[in-house]
Design brief:
Chain lengths: 283, 174
């Protein structure tokens, strides 16, 4: 299958892209890395009249430090995220999760901002972004606004980005020295997560002093495992303590049932994978 | 229509294309480079893998217009002076194919992997080609071929293989 016909523009600045969005109206669609959008277009699940390719806007790419934050341009590829030294040092969790996205070819093209804006509940980057308390910088006609991760993901494939807006950067607080692990369960290589758990843990002298845990595909949006986080803080990082705390991982979730797994099984996976992720991150 | 100028396997092409034309269609239907095949049509199988500016991509998930100004390397651009690329030769030597449909993509992805990691373990080979499906071989001989190619492309290996490897990297390898 090939996509339905569309017009194509490739702006070179964010301003031009926003203008194209306004001119294109309801029917315009932003193209980031295209690794979700092009399959959707090919399957004719969408037929926008205008595609605005963000690939020619250099200001949307790259990773930099800004005080206590690490700023990642929305068009930074998964490949570049996995290789970046600043992220390795300060935001290891997003790097660990990104390494598991799809396959090398897709990671060469796909982007952090594109994946987050697409907001597939089985996508691997929303849960770590939520756990890391990332902030989303969104540009529109009236300048930029910043949305917290907790408010960014609204529903299945739905985010706080408005129709004439675009995501320009993702700002992560620094988690320097925290351990990180993304524990993903799927049936075959490169498949979507059935359930996955993103955990980043701070350990001081064998005791867990802070914990952030996000769950992938346990609801239409990513979910924080807050009950597990509070149960872990102050505990020594032993297998017994971690497994006990992980029993609360499915609290407050509402997973779907599908051909891969029922809700009970997803809840079971959340508990098991949370235990594994926390142990690895604390280890 | 959009005007694109693209270097494919070392030659420059200029064409008017519909924006919706996929890179794989452009290669096959416009340039006649049918060595790059369409497998699954759902971005899963990797049979259509080519290199775009030195990085492996699934050419069914890239628009031809996105390759404007870029360099594309396909399976048809690997051979040098009648000599197969060491990875092509290793696939031949190790019987790393049965029906052969996945082979162009497997070879292009294997070259990308070896550019990144010249001496991969078996596990690293399997991870590196996870985006390429083979429904015949069970992957055993494919993994062997990639490791065989790695050993032949190492510095100090046979001069012909080494020369071939260097030329390919210069021509758009990772």
């Amino acid at each position: 299958m090939i996509p339905a016909q569309f017009d194509y523009v490739r702006p070179t600045t964010v301003e031009e892209a926003l203008q194209a969005l306004r001119d294109g109206g309801d029917d315009a669609k932003l193209l980031a890395g295209g690794q979700s959008l092009l399959p959707v277009l090919r399957l004719r699940m969408a037929d926008p009249s205008l595609i605005i390719d963000l690939g020619g806007i250099p200001e949307l790419r790259g990773v930099r430090e800004d005080g206590n934050e690490v700023v990642v341009g929305a068009m930074t590829s998964h490949h570049d995220v996995t290789r970046d030294d600043i992220l390795r040092q300060h935001v290891a969790l997003i790097q660990e999760a990104t390494k598991t996205v799809a396959d090398p070819q897709v990671r060469h093209r796909g982007t952090l901002g594109g994946a987050l804006a697409h907001a597939d509940p089985a996508g691997d980057l929303a849960a770590p972004a939520l756990a890391l308390e990332a902030k989303f910088v969104i540009a529109g006609a009236d300048g930029t606004r910043t949305v917290a991760a907790a408010d960014f993901f609204e529903d299945y494939f739905s985010t706080a980005i408005g129709e004439a807006e675009l995501l320009t950067e993702i700002r992560f607080p620094k988690y320097t020295g925290w351990g990180a692990r993304y524990e993903k369960f799927n049936r075959v290589a490169q498949a979507w997560s059935i359930v996955a758990v993103a955990a980043t843990i701070k350990v001081d002298g064998g005791t867990i002093s802070d914990a952030r845990i996000g769950l992938t595909n346990m609801a239409g949006v990513p979910v924080r495992a807050t009950a597990v986080e509070s149960a872990l803080v102050g505990q020594s990082a032993t297998e017994d303590n971690v497994r006990k705390a992980a029993q609360a991982a499915a609290e407050g979730t509402s997973p779907t049932a599908d051909a891969d797994a029922g809700t009970d099984y997803r809840e079971h996976l959340a508990r098991v994978l949370t235990g594994r992720a926390v142990l690895a991150a604390a280890g | 229509m959009a005007r694109i100028r693209t270097t494919v396997d070392g030659l420059v092409y200029e064409d008017d294309v519909e924006p919706r034309m996929l890179l794989v269609q452009y290669l096959r239907e416009r340039l006649g480079k049918t060595g790059t095949v369409i497998g699954c049509d759902t971005s899963n199988c990797g049979a259509c893998t080519v290199h775009l500016d030195g990085m492996s991509v699934k050419s069914c998930s890239v628009l031809a217009v996105q390759a404007n100004g870029a360099e594309v390397l396909t399976i048809e651009g690997l051979e040098r002076d009648g000599q197969l690329h060491p990875v092509q030769q290793a696939f031949h030597d190790n019987h790393a194919l049965q029906c052969g449909y996945c082979t162009p993509g497997m070879i292009m992805q294997s070259i990308d992997l070896l550019g990144d990691n010249p001496d991969p373990t078996e596990h690293e080979v399997r991870e590196g080609i996870e985006g390429n499906l083979c429904r015949c071989t069970g992957y055993q001989n494919i993994v062997r071929a990639v490791q065989d190619a790695a050993s032949k492309m190492k510095p100090g290996a046979a001069p012909t293989a080494e020369a071939g490897a260097k030329q390919t990297v210069a021509g758009g390898g990772a």
